[in-house]
């Protein structure tokens, strides 16, 4: 009886221990290849098994391993008689490296507590060597690789520290591109600037000034002609030297431009600059500089001008009449023409002051007179000074092509005498005389007549706006080699 009861207890205990070992083995390694290795651990378990005197002890172990009821083979008792297997536990922890529970033997109750304490840093002696190897491959795939070698015992902590630096650089990189786009707005080389030729042709202003001074000394009418030229050029398709091009159907052939002069001065300045700075300075810039120097030569203010214009490729006579100011215009008509160019009524009065130098042919102001019953010429406008009217008729009696100074008594000096003459009824052209017949423009005329400084100060701004009309820069237009023709 004792021998049979011992055999039954042996079978029961071996079955229970085998089922527990199989459950632990399945939890330790999912791979089927490693499952048979826990079998040698049976003797160690058998030593602990005889302690319970009743089957109540294995009962709590059974729910911990759910697969126990499935595996109840009785042949598992065969490995019981093998005594030499107690050395197997030393080999068991090696294959169980992927999980912390493998370090503790199966039957011992503290084994389930080992995995809970394994991830914690305070238990490095037993669990630190095995887990140190598995966490290392985990941080290697993500970008923060440099931080992995520093902490070996605790892998998850360094993996979180390098992550913020990887996220912070991206916001700094996109912030960089806006700055260059913002720093380099529209190409600065295309903008007009007083220093446009500072590097390419630093002597441009000196060269033009010398040519203008020389020509004006020989011919006192040159300053007035150069100043008139810049008006006729800039008002028709912008300041692009289109008025200089010769040929059939060009702006130069329109009747309004037949009386223009000073072309030889522009050509001479261009020849000089081509010798010093070939294919660099545009003809349109030379016109602006020559007009500025003409004012300075006759006593007017020397104003800074911006440069960098390019010359037009087209010049059409059909563009002249639609843009030029006719001598028969009223204040409203002139104001509308100026407004279409972006110029104000104040610009109109100020730039009309350019008539303080220069002269006009008798045919230009003939419409201001009519014959009377006796065949004599009388002024159409009753506001014209009678003495001045007589002087004009006397000057034009001999020849209709005679020239009369636009500013009576001061046609060779750039000053405010022009405005004083307007208030006195001595305006030569009708466009001059009507400025005192409008309340707004008359007030400005009176202010300039009282203060030459006020006129000079206003001239600087209005001249800058005039010479900025419709300029061509960059790839628009060209720099002509000869101002009278486009490049072939």
From TrEMBL:
SUPFAM superfamilies, A to Z: Heme-dependent peroxidases (SSF48113)
UniProt-annotated binding residues for Ca(2+) 2: 356, 407, 415
Gene3D superfamilies reported for this sequence: 1.10.520.10, Peroxidase, domain 2 (1.10.420.10)
Residues binding Ca(2+) 1, per UniProt: 233, 236, 238, 240, 242, 251
Signal sequence extent: 1-27
Gene Ontology BP term (one): hydrogen peroxide catabolic process
Keyword Isomerase: no
Family: Belongs to the peroxidase family. Ascorbate peroxidase subfamily.
One Pfam family here: peroxidase
Ranges for region Disordered: 25-191
Name the UniProt record assigns to this protein: peroxidase
Chain residues that bind heme b: 355
Biased composition (Pro residues): 52-61, 70-87, 104-188
């Amino acid at each position: 009886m004792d021998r049979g009861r011992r055999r039954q207890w042996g079978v029961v205990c071996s079955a229970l221990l085998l089922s527990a070992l199989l459950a632990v083995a399945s939890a330790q390694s999912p791979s089927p290849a490693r499952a048979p290795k826990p079998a040698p651990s049976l003797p160690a378990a058998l030593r602990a098994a005889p302690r319970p005197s009743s089957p109540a002890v294995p009962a709590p172990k059974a729910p911990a391993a759910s697969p126990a009821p499935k595996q109840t083979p009785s042949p598992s008792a065969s490995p019981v008689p093998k005594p030499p297997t107690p050395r197997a536990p030393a080999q068991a922890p090696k294959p169980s490296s992927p999980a912390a529970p493998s370090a503790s033997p199966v039957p011992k109750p503290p084994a389930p507590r080992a995995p809970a304490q394994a991830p914690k840093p305070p238990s490095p002696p037993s669990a630190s060597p095995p887990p140190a190897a598995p966490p290392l491959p985990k941080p290697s795939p993500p970008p923060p690789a440099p931080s992995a070698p520093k902490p070996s015992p605790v892998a998850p902590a360094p993996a979180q520290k390098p992550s913020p630096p990887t996220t912070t650089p991206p916001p700094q990189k996109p912030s960089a591109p806006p700055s260059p786009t913002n720093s380099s707005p529209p190409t600065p080389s295309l903008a007009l600037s007083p220093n446009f030729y500072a590097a390419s042709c630093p002597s441009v202003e000196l060269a033009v000034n010398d040519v203008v001074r020389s020509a004006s000394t020989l011919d006192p009418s040159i300053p007035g002609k150069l100043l008139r030229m810049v008006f006729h050029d800039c008002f028709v398709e912008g300041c692009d030297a289109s008025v200089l091009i010769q040929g059939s159907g060009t702006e130069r052939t329109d009747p309004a431009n037949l009386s223009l002069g000073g072309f030889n001065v522009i050509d001479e300045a261009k020849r000089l600059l081509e010798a010093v700075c070939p294919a660099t300075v545009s003809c349109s810039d030379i016109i602006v500089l020559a007009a500025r120097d003409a004012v300075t030569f006759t006593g007017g203010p020397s104003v800074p001008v911006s440069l960098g214009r390019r010359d037009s490729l087209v010049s059409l006579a059909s563009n002249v009449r639609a843009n030029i100011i006719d001598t028969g215009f009223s204040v409203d008509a002139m104001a509308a023409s100026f407004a279409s160019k972006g110029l104000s009524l104040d610009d109109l009065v100020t730039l009309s002051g350019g008539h303080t130098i220069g002269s006009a042919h008798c045919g230009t102001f003939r419409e201001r007179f009519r014959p009377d019953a006796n065949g004599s010429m009388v002024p159409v406008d009753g506001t014209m000074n009678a003495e001045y009217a007589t002087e004009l008729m006397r000057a034009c009696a001999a020849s209709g092509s005679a020239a009369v100074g636009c500013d009576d008594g001061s046609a060779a000096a750039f000053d405010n005498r022009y405005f004083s003459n307007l208030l006195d009824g001595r305006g030569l052209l009708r466009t001059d005389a009507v400025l005192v017949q409008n309340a707004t423009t008359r007030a400005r005329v009176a202010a300039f007549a009282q203060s030459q400084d006020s006129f000079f100060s206003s001239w600087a701004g209005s001249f800058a706006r005039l010479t900025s009309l419709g300029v061509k820069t960059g790839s628009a237009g060209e720099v002509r080699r000869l101002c009278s023709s486009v490049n072939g």
